[in-house]
């Protein structure tokens, strides 16, 4: 199982470098392959509040992470024109859940030859992801562009991520059968544990969340069977510019991942 982890937004170079350093050390001790993630622009925020550091500066920082720690990089793209420049740095282009049916964006991401991680929309059934898969498969070069990191060389070029489904107003629920269903399509399935505990627009126009539930949902997802785990982490989540209520505290990551390894080893005996 691989891990996708990092802060929700690139808030500063120092914070990102510290987080990447810590995550690399933890994953090194536990033998877990790590993809570092962070976003240069939070374009789908509820309000017009701070969105992030911007693409140019953000990519510079992500390139420094990549060069310093030899880590593969994952980041979001929101518009088609962003895909080519982002692919010069990122090994994985992530399609946000709200944009998971946007044909032009999926096609542009696929044409870069990078791995495309599609987050299942909160409004979509797992079988609806077949449409996104078909669009990417039809647009992806026959031989995806090799990444500069060995980790990505042997990884299928489409990932499917479960991040919860809308459950009434201001809440999400995770249908674990979605993980089983999406795995039938032949691509790695990732569980996004931190966005799955969001409570959209529940705090006077700001997205809330319940990070205390993250370890419980992770154990359930690992028991069902996943290929990757997605965690947004922050040294001081309460000070984060976005997703403050659901990001995992950086100091808690090692304990959570120790549980992940133990549960995964046990679950593999029964799959």
Quick structural overview:
The chain has 271 residues and is α/β, with parallel strands linked by helices. The chain has 9 helices and 13 strands. It has one domain: Aldolase class I (TIM Barrel), CATH 3.20.20.70.
Question: CATH homologous superfamily name?
Answer: Aldolase class I
Beta strand count = 13
Overall structural domain count: 1
Separate helix tally: 9
Category from helices, strands and their pairing: alpha/beta
| CATH class descriptor | Alpha Beta
Overall 3D shape: globular
Beta content: 15-25%
Mean pLDDT rating: 90
Helix content: 25-40%
Reported by name, the CATH topology is: TIM Barrel
Q: Report strand order across the widest sheet.
A: 1-2-3-4-5-6-9-12
Q: Can you summarize the main beta sheet? A: 8 strands, parallel, barrel
Q: What is the CA-CA span between the terminal residues?
A: 14 Å
CATH architecture: Alpha-Beta Barrel
The SSE order reads EHEHEHEHEHHEEEHEEEHEEH
| Poorly predicted regions | none
Radius of gyration: 17 Å
